[in-house]
Each structure stands twice: as C-alpha cells, then as structure tokens.
From TrEMBL:
This is Cytochrome c oxidase assembly protein. One of its GO terms (cellular component) is cytochrome complex. The chain crosses the membrane at residues 6-37, 83-103, 115-135, 155-175, 196-217, 223-240, 252-275, 295-317. Belongs to the cytochrome ubiquinol oxidase subunit 2 family. It holds the Pfam family Cyt_bd_oxida_II. Its main location: membrane. It is a multi-pass membrane protein. InterPro entries: Cyt-d_oxidase_su2.
Length: 347
C-alpha cells in the first residue's frame, strides 16, 4: 500500500489539531466576551488578548480544508456535500465574528458596541459547535451509499455524536479560552477566567470525552488510541488541579494537552477510515480509497515541506512579539472612527 495517503492523513490530523488548539482559545475568548465579561473595559481587554493573532489562527482551518480537498477529494466531496446546511452556517458565523471584531471599536455608541459584541459571541459559539459537529461526523460516520453519497434529508447529519462533538468543542473552547485569558490578561478578567476554569472545566470537557469514547467503542479502538485517551483524561486532571491552585501556565498546558490527546485519540481510533458509512461498512471511505494519485500527493508533500515551516515560524514569532499581558490600564480610550471619516469626507 502507498505510504503517502497515510502521511497525509496524519498531516491533516495535525492541521486540525493546530486549528483546535490555536483557534480554540480565540473562540473561547469570543464566547467569554458575552458570557463572562462584566464591563466594556473587560471586553476590550479580552479582545486585545487575541487581537494580534486571531486572523492568523484561522489559516489552520483554511489549510486543513484545502489539504482535505487536494489529498482526499472523495472524503472532501462526500463530507462537505452532506454538510451544506451546517457549513453555510459556520461560514456566516465566521464572517459575522470577523466583522464584529473589526467594527465594534469604530464607534463609541453603546448600542453599536452591544450589537457587535453579541455578533462576536454568537459567531464564536456557532463556529465552535459547527466545526466540532463536522469533526464528530467524519469520525463516526454518515449514511453513505456505495457511491459515497449521503442517504437521507439535509439534516441526516444531526446525530448524537454530532451533538456531542459540537458541545465538546464549545466546552473545550470555553475552558481553553479561560486559561488563555489567565495567561494573557490581568485584573478582573484574569481573576474571573481563573475561577471559571477551576469551577467549570470538568463539566465543559464531558461532551468531548464522551465523543472520544464513542469513537473508540464504535471501532473497537486499538491499545494506542485507548492509551492516548487515558493520557487526555490525565492531562485534564492535571490542568484542573493547576487551575484550582491558580497555576495559570500549567493549567493552560494541561487543558491544551487534553485537547491534543483527545483529538489524537479520535483520529487514531477512526484510522484507516476517513468517513465511515453507517449503512454498510463496505461503503466506508478510507485513506486509500479516498486519496488522490501518488503524483498529486508527492507534489503536495514537497510544497508542504517548504511552506509549513514558514507558516509555523511566522506564527511562533508573532506570539513571541505579543507575549506580554494585556492590563486594563493598557487599553487606550475609546473614540469614534466612522463619524470622523464621514466628517473628513464632507470637508
């Protein structure tokens, strides 16, 4: 069997892992802006913690989707065509969230700010739920026929594993975002984020753990996938203990490791399938039946070996440059931008 399909399955898993870990805390911070912040200054502190990096983190989503399209076109076609409804909602939520981040500070009108704050929070919630549901579906299956087409209506994707995956990523993002705020913010935001992680982390992570267990039980997980799942639970316990002790760096590393191990357990548990069929196992799409030609995968490997280190190096540099904490006193005074632009045009 060709090794390159396996290599690219691992590469795509790593890309999704990068997205979940980096964009995960962005989405969590966006939700905390609505659910946890107590004042406008709190929200501005939260937004400034992710301001320099949030758009760069979305590169991992684009890269993961593009890699699926190029390396496994049958996987991409079957999954994305079956998920038109949720993926369109995710796309709209991504747009709403991005516009909200860029436009909320253009005017000081409280109603204007409130609308965009809500947009950021709802957009982050929908994106987290939609991406989590999509990943849960690709790991547990869809009703696919022999041609790889979905059988059933437009909501055939709405299954128990999909809901678990959606809630799992929402819960993980909330915890991951809280521990990130503990690292990057100061003042009341830091204190409330620490209390949230210490109090709610176990409950937030339950759906993700259940999704992982579902995958293991459905496919009779290997010793390796069960071991990785156990490491995820151990990492979560470590992170929770650190959060309760207000050891912020350890809490962040613990919960990030938990998310990484859970994702690794899911991908290893479903291998070699990339999209199982819930109708007949003979219709499963695997890394070998869904992959592109060896030539295509070879060219992609060369391009990835050149481009991926550049992306990683640039993102690492940007995180290093913006490593300082965001304090309430470092937030500049709010001022109107849009009215000033209009007045300048009138002149």
């Amino acid at each position: 069997m060709e090794p390159l399909p396996v290599v690219w399955f691992v590469a795509i898993a790593v890309l999704w892992l990068g997205y979940l870990l980096l964009e995960g805390f962005d989405l969590g911070v966006g939700m905390h802006m609505v659910f946890s912040a107590r004042s406008e200054n709190d929200r501005r502190v939260m937004l400034n913690t992710i301001g320099p990096v949030w758009d760069g983190n979305e590169v991992w989503l684009i890269t993961a989707g593009a890699a699926m399209f190029a390396a496994f076109p049958h996987w991409y076609a079957s999954l994305f065509s079956a998920l038109y409804v949720p993926l369109v909602l995710v796309l709209l939520a991504l747009i709403l969230r991005a516009v909200g981040i860029e436009y909320r500070g253009k005017m000081t009108d409280p109603r204007w700010i409130r609308v965009w704050n809500t947009g950021i929070g709802i957009g982050s919630l929908v994106v987290a739920f939609g991406i989590g549901a999509a990943l849960a579906i690709t790991s547990t299956g869809l009703p696919l026929n022999a041609a790889g087409n979905r059988v059933g209506g437009p909501f055939a994707w709405l299954t128990v594993p999909a809901v678990l995956g959606g809630l799992g990523l929402v819960g993980f993002a909330l915890v991951h975002g809280a521990t990130f705020l503990g690292l990057k913010a100061d003042g009341p935001v830091r204190e409330r984020a620490g209390r949230f992680a210490a109090r709610w982390a176990p409950m937030c992570l339950v759906p993700a753990v259940l999704w992982t267990l579902w995958v293991q039980l459905q496919f009779g997980g290997s010793a390796w996938s069960w071991t990785v799942a156990a490491l995820a639970v151990a990492a979560a316990a470590f992170g929770w203990g650190a959060a309760r002790a207000r050891r912020e760096r350890r809490a962040f590393l613990g919960f990030a490791s938990c998310g990484a191990f859970l994702a690794a357990s899911v991908f290893t548990g479903m291998f070699p399938r990339v999209l199982p069929s819930t109708i007949d196992a003979a219709h499963d799409l695997t890394v070998w039946t869904a992959s592109s030609s060896p030539y295509t995968l070879g060219v992609m490997t060369v391009v990835a070996c050149v481009g991926l280190p550049i992306i990683v190096a640039y993102q690492a540099w940007s995180y290093w440059v913006f490593r300082a904490r965001v304090t309430p006193g470092s937030i500049p005074s709010a001022h109107d931008v849009i009215p000033a632009v209009l007045r300048a045009r009138e002149r």
